[in-house]
Amino acid sequence: MFLGVTASVMNWDADGTCCSILLEDNPLVDFVELPDTCQGLYYCNILSGVIRGALEMVAMKTEVTWIRDMLRGDDAYELQVKLLKQVPEEYPYKDDE
Question: Where is the protein found, in the record's own terms (predicted)?
């Protein structure tokens, strides 16, 4: 939303713990070309960290990995989000005191 990117959530697994996020556009790569010597580089890896960090703020431990990246010759930008565990909320103080 903050980058002005439209995304679609798809490919849910049977457990409902893993899905793919398909990005229609990626403004981080507008003026980027990876040379042949850097084809192993995931240039937009910051997006996976942003998604993982946002989900940690709502008590979800996740693993976010790139599946497809147009900078590497694929036909789309696709991230896989896998829920590892939900962290129970802990309150630092008691309400009844």
Answer: Endoplasmic reticulum; Golgi apparatus, cis-Golgi network
